[in-house]
Amino acid sequence: MTRVLVVDDEPQILRAMKTNLAARGYEVDLAPTGEDALRLAAAHRPDVIVLDLGLPGIDGIEVVHGLRGWTTVPIIVLSVRDAEADKIAALDAGADDYVTKPFAMGELLARLRAAVRRADPGPEAALVETDAFAVDLVAKRVHRHGAEVHLTPTEWGLLEVLVRNPGRLVSQRQLLQQVWGPQYETETNYLRVYLAQLRRKLEDDPSRPRHLITEPGMGYRFEPGDPPA
User: I need a labelling partner for 55 at 20 to 30 A (CA). Which of 10, 11, 170, 211 fits?
Assistant: First the structure.
């Protein structure tokens, strides 16, 4: 059963979310503050979090930073703030999606289902193959042209984040937060060093990578390319 943590200081939002999610078979935890959100997330390990930004005490952006120090759980921001700057700040902090209030419950539920699907590779996506290397997300193993490649835990962490987001730009800040923690979000030199190591181990031509792509000044992207013959 999928567990959802809903974080909002509006009691009517909490009640509505609890009613709608429980009716669809979800387990639901409710948190009215950021402090409660961090405590419940650590205790119950939800599958997805729906998070308001305007919270008493620790605000929503701080909650995202705190979560991204140790988990990649999908976070959907649900906020009345509709300014572009607020959306960028939330996504840069590590949120996966952003929905503005007032919202349609049907749309929010669809986004929640999509976030859970992306987070769980499922049996079909457990093995990700390119023409040069294959990544087994369940066994946490990598093979290049049939031979197993040894990766350090940090190298694996970077590769896993990228592979779980095929074709999508993953920002430098998001990678640093998810792999090293929020206190390292400005250490972009770490990414250059470790991505270079990954390319030497996995790409056929590390100087002209086809799968581990740099988007200068923004982040990195995994391109699976055509499946192997």
Answer: 170
d(CA 193, CA 124): 32
**Ordered alpha helix ranges (H), the chain:** 11-23, 34-44, 60-68, 84-93, 105-119, 122-125, 153-163, 172-179, 188-202
Residue 64 has which token pair? 């995202």
99: nearest Cα among 84, 83, 77: 77
This prediction's pTM = 0.56
Residue 16 CA to residue 84 CA, distance in Å, equals: 27
Tokens of 70: 């140790």
Comparing CA positions, the residue from 114, 70, 64, 73 lying closest to residue 92 is 64
Domain ranges of the chain: 3-119, 123-222
What does each of the 229 residues of the chain score in pLDDT, given as a tens digit?
Answer: 899 999 999 999 999 999 999 999 999 999 999 999 999 998 899 999 999 999 988 999 999 988 987 888 999 999 998 888 888 888 888 888 898 888 888 888 988 988 887 776 544 457 889 999 999 988 889 999 989 999 998 999 999 999 988 887 788 888 888 888 777 778 888 899 999 999 999 999 999 999 999 988 778 989 987 655 5
Domain 3-119 class in CATH = alpha beta
CA dist., res. 100 & res. 224, Å (int): 33
The three-point CA angle 94-33-179 to 5° equals 25
Q: H or E element: which one contains 188? A: helix 188-202
